[in-house]
Amino acid sequence: MNFDLIISNITRHTPLEPGEINFFTSLLEPGQLLRKDWLVRTGDICRYDYFVNKGCLKVCYTNEKGTESVIKFATENWWVVDLDSFLNHTPSFYYIQAVEDTDYFQLSKSNYDLVHRKIPAFQKFSNERWQNGFIALQQRIIQSLSLTAEERYSHFLNKYPGLDQRISQRLIAAYLGITPEFLSMLRKKWATEFS
Amino acid sequence: MNFDLIISNITRHTPLEPGEINFFTSLLEPGQLLRKDWLVRTGDICRYDYFVNKGCLKVCYTNEKGTESVIKFATENWWVVDLDSFLNHTPSFYYIQAVEDTDYFQLSKSNYDLVHRKIPAFQKFSNERWQNGFIALQQRIIQSLSLTAEERYSHFLNKYPGLDQRISQRLIAAYLGITPEFLSMLRKKWATEFS
DNA sequence: CGTCTATTTGAATGTACTCAAAAGCGGTGG
DNA sequence: CCACCGCTTTTGAGTACATTCAAATAGACG
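Output (structure tokens, whole complex):
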């Protein structure tokens, strides 16, 4: 696995010197998952920050009734972590699981802290990461408050272009907060609207 | 207006030296609002970071149909800003308005940058602010995906204790993503369940 | 080919909204 | 002090959005 994607992901935000790049990449541990493999289970301590190089992960929560909800999908070029568990060493509320066979890098908490101490650019990068994440989550909340399921589905298709062809409708429904049956009905309605 | 609340809000996360406190407070500008006054209108550039000393603000979005959605309430001891607009000088998507007569401090973007450059503790503070904000927003998304309106109302009462006595049901409904009529019905149902 | 899971379909149900009207409540001015 | 105004809350009937449950169909994988 090469480092091009993860390095360009960071340097798009803030430049890194060659020495910093070498130092950072020496701390990364590569990993692979098969579809349905677990990366983090509910109740685990999330000890790594993950970067997806290829494939797709889901971050989920399943309630008492057994209904799964998807917080986010992480495809290639996305970072993913259970932040609360990672920062505070608390049992994770969410689980992270592979939706497709996935290649990833992981960075342990101690190495995460290390790069932030040694390389100021990483502080800037992480700041922007969480700030942008905050902004994106606010947008999602507004959408779930003010849009119908049909409109949210349309937004999903724009936000994750092509992803609807890669993952099951059951998962898309779990992301939108509706049942798979209802999503199926919406898609049927859309199909007939353009015939 | 005194600085006790805002200083304790920060030093709860990270200690500040007396000189740093003086420097920081010298950059704060106090302000007051009457109920229904605007702090930021949709389309404005959000040029300040705000801290509520007393009273209550709402951060909202109103869609084409005229339905208002509440992103968050900021009561005493809360910070509030339209982050995207503030950081990137873009027209704000949200508006911020007083729900009660409100006393606040504002910190301009240039002074915000200044304190972050001069006082490392502020970098730490802001990091934690956005990280914790991110964690809280994820929780809210999970709730809106997996809970009924009734359950979300119950969570609201726990998360903002006493606030239901201070603001209108119309606003609580806009926070929960339901109509005021439906919230009224839920409350009636609750009342009769305990009689 | 058989098994397992995902998707589709349909009927019945429940959750939440719309619209309209009435009642309550707080502030303001006469 | 009271009458009125504007806004919020309540109530109810009808409707729309979304779920549940069950069964049939289609796809994916060993």
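The CA atoms of residues 50 and 106 of chain B lie 5 Å apart.
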